[in-house]
Amino acid sequence: MSAAHSPSPATPVLDRIRVGSAPDSWGVWFAEDPAQTPWRRFLDEVAEAGYEWIELGPYGYLPTDPGRLREEVARRGLNVSAGTVFTALHRGPAVWDETWEQVSRVAALTRAMGAEHLVVIPSFWRDDRTAELIEEPELTAGQWHHLASGMERLAREVRDTFGLGIAVHPHADTHIDTEAHVARFLDATDPGLVNLCLDTGHYAYCGGDSVKLIETYGERIGYLHLKQVDPDILADVVRDGTPFGPAVGRGVMCEPPRGVPELEPVLAAAQGLGVDLFAIVEQDMYPCPPEQPLPIARRTRAFLRSCGA
After folding, report:
1. How far apart are the first and last CA of the chain?
2. Fold classification of 13-306 (topology level)
3. pTM strictly above 0.90
4. pLDDT digits (tens, 9 = 90+) for 2-39
5. 205-220: b or e for each residue (b if 16 or more CB lie within 10 Å)?
6. Please, are residues 166 and 123 in contact by the beta-carbon 8 Å criterion?
7. Which domain of life does this protein belong to (predicted)?
8. Could you write out the DSSP letters of every residue in 10-64?
9. Are strands 117-122 and 221-226 parallel, antiparallel or unpaired?
């Protein structure tokens, strides 16, 4: 840790921020993949790195039997903050049944683990490995209507059935990505139902200002993902039109405090909202060598402590 990030009497106390990490920071993107860290090793190492909170990651990566999973996380001193689902609700009512089937599985396990949040990621408009165009990057007015009304319906059903709140995650190569798209989505949805998961890395990747978003839409920020972008690699990614998956392989998401945005102002702005927020470290590293994640996780946890979290 550099002197610039050493704890000092002036370091703020971020007592409304609950820090955790996620399988993503161990190179996990899929339920099963031989290139990924085995789930037992992830649980062992995330606890060893000093985190108390985790996300479930892709459904099926961790055990899906609630009793077994409770035992596995409890004996490592861990707790679950959220589950994650991908949706394509802009496609309209025709996808609802399929969407609800997979959401229900994840939401049930999330609730059984005592968590209160479901992170909802929109579907990609291009393949994150091949760059093949799946859909147009811009939605029509009708598709925006389906997206907003579908998310509101999802929020109601998840709340009424499982007692969870949803946090929609703006994400690179999806239809909710840039400042303009995020603002349009928030303005089109009910603030009493739909909150945002602000991912600092994805928002910077797409040109957004996290502090500005917190200051403008603070009442909609229900959850945080902490990550940074390497600005030099990002410039190449934008120039080359590189899809998100290969961009991650090139190291576009980097270890803090080496990238942007600066996390200290983001955390201070989040603390200023006066509500309890999870801030889950989620450094995209798929794929990565098995020995790479733990040292990064330790350093990142130390850095966040130096920020007061």
Report:
1. 15
2. TIM Barrel (3.20.20)
3. yes
4. 444 554 556 778 999 999 999 999 999 999 999 999 99
5. bbebebbebbeebeeb
6. no
7. Bacteria
8. TS---TTEEEEE-GGGGT--SSS-TTSPPHHHHHHHHHHTT--EEE--STTTS--
9. unpaired
